[in-house]
């Protein structure tokens, strides 16, 4: 049974999972305090531990019209099973009466861009050298070095 909870306190307890999507903790620290953290669980509703945690995401308000999906991560063994897509669908519905647009930024990796496009995002703009200027080490997704940040946007109101 899938359930999604908004986490109010102790957000850093999810750091191990957040680091899968953004591997530099000081970058996460820039958006986690002001962002909304959501956790997706799939398992027994009455479990006494978080062994059924599959995915998390952080959404940050940018202005009265726009929010940004700053981080979305799924444990590797559960990737490709629809948890990320479910979480994006949930947050798009959650924010549709609050914001007009949701942004997400990512590296120029075809599989990741394709995933976001399949979730209803379309390419918006690019920030040149974002990864090389903001991270203290070269960033890679597989064998692709991340240089520019590619932003995609999703209209939350149909």
Describe this structure in words.
The chain has helices spanning about 15-20, 25-30, 85-95, 110-120, 130-135; strands at about 1-5, 35-40, 55-60, 65-75, 100-105, 120-125, 140, 145, 150-155. β4 (about 65-75), α3 (about 85-95) and β5 form a beta-alpha-beta unit. The mean pLDDT is about 95. Strands 1-2-3-4-5-9-6 form a 7-stranded mixed beta sheet, with helices on both faces. Strands 7-8 form a two-stranded antiparallel sheet. It has one domain (about 1-155): 3-Layer(aba) Sandwich (Aminopeptidase). The chain is α+β, with helices and mostly antiparallel strands and about 160 residues long.
Distance between the termini: 28 Å
The CATH architecture designation is 3-Layer(aba) Sandwich
Mean pLDDT: 93
Going by CATH, what is the homologous superfamily? Gcn5-related N-acetyltransferase (GNAT)
> Largest beta sheet: what is the strand line-up?
1-2-3-4-5-9-6
Got a strand count?
9
How would you characterize the largest beta sheet? Answer: 7 strands, mixed
List low-confidence stretches: none
């Amino acid at each position: 049974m899938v359930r999604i909870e908004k986490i109010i306190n102790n957000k850093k307890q999810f750091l191990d999972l957040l680091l899968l999507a953004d591997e530099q903790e000081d970058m996460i620290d820039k958006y986690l305090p002001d962002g909304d953290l959501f956790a997706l669980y799939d398992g027994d509703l009455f479990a006494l531990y978080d062994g059924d945690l599959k995915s998390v995401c952080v959404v940050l308000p940018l202005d009265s019209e726009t929010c940004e999906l700053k981080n979305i991560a799924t444990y590797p063994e559960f990737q490709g099973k629809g948890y990320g897509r479910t979480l994006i669908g949930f947050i798009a519905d959650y924010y549709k009466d609050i914001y007009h647009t949701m942004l997400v930024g990512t590296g120029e990796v075809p599989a990741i861009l394709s995933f976001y496009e399949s979730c209803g995002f379309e390419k918006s703009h690019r920030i040149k050298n974002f990864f090389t200027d903001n991270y203290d080490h070269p960033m890679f997704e597989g064998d692709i070095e991340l240089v520019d940040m590619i932003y995609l946007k999703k209209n939350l109101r149909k």
